[in-house]
DNA sequence: AACTGGTTCAACCGCGTCTGA
DNA sequence: ATCAGACGCGGTTGAACCAGT
């Protein structure tokens, strides 16, 4: 006996959104907001969609200032650092990346960054399949090492983060690395995530000074 | 050109948490 | 204090696209 569905699946449209539906939803939300209830919004807006589907479409695609694709090195660093410290709290991680959604960050981690990090640190397995790499990564400790210089970053809670706030810049030593004959992306990751040279003192200092207060402010 | 396997990412699902009556 | 409905989240799925053969 499972939980009752949030809406009648036989009466709502599913699958990809059409441009017309996007326009309807965008216009309605911009004019009326969410009216305090996503569940009732589709009916008010004249959409044959589940409220949860509307909410997801708005948050991940239609709302202003959304950025798609092209994650920067600085964003990579922030994702890796926060994943190392708090795990797969994608909404918390995304809140530190203006314009990024939790879905975007999650997809980026699962499809690209995780593999990139592993390959950069295990060059001999670079030709392995994604499935094989993923299974290896999943069996590893979640506690990736963190470069001490990342301590310089300042993180803001979401309600203090302006929509177009600049992403905290990476330290110079992390921004212009071309080492070991690797591409800049890979060299950057290798240099910023040195598996064998992690300073635990720095990790705990960083965790207690910056991440734990932030993490606690998000606990729900 | 056709097929196949891999990759990407939008969307869905179900569960935990929150909130207001 | 309790409970039902709504919200928000992380995990997963599958269609579309891409690259190699």
TrEMBL record:
- From the UniProt entry, list the residue stretches annotated as the region Disordered: 1-21
Q: Where is the HTH myb-type domain?
A: 9-62, 63-117
Example of a GO cellular component annotation carried by this entry: nucleus
Q: Does the keyword Translocase apply?
A: no
* GO molecular function terms attached to this record: DNA binding
Basic and acidic residues compositional bias: what residue ranges? 1-10
Q: Which SUPFAM superfamilies match?
A: Homeodomain-like (SSF46689)
What is a single Pfam family found in this protein's UniProt entry?
A: Myb_DNA-binding
Gene3D superfamilies from the UniProt entry: Homeodomain-like
Localization terms from the record:
Nucleus
* Alphabetic keyword roster: DNA-binding, Nucleus, Repeat, Transcription, Transcription regulation
Domain (Myb-like): give its ranges: 9-62, 63-113
Chief subcellular location: nucleus
**Signal peptide (residue range):** none
Q: What protein is this chain from?
A: Transcription factor RAX2-like
Q: What organism, scientifically named, is this protein from?
A: Salvia divinorum (Maria pastora)
């Amino acid at each position: 006996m499972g939980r009752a569905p949030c809406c009648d699946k036989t009466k709502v449209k599913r699958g990809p959104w059409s441009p017309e539906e996007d326009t309807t939803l965008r216009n309605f939300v911009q004019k009326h907001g969410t009216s305090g209830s996503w569940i009732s919004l589709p009916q008010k807006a004249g959409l044959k969609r589940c409220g949860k589907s509307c909410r997801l479409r708005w948050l991940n695609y239609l709302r202003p200032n959304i950025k798609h694709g092209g994650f920067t090195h600085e964003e990579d660093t922030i994702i890796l650092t926060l994943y190392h410290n708090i795990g797969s709290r994608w909404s918390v991680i995304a809140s530190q990346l203006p314009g990024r959604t939790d879905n975007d960050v999650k997809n980026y981690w699962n499809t690209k960054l995780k593999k990139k990090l592993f390959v950069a640190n295990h060059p001999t397995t670079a030709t392995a399949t994604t499935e094989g790499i993923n299974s290896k990564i999943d069996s590893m400790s979640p506690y990736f090492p963190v470069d001490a210089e990342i301590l310089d970053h300042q993180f803001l809670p979401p309600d203090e983060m302006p929509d177009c706030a600049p992403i905290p810049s990476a330290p110079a030593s992390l921004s212009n690395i071309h080492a070991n004959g690797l591409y800049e992306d890979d060299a950057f990751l290798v240099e910023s995530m040195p598996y064998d040279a992690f300073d635990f003192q720095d990790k705990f200092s960083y965790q207690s000074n910056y991440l734990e207060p932030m993490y606690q402010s998000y606990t729900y």
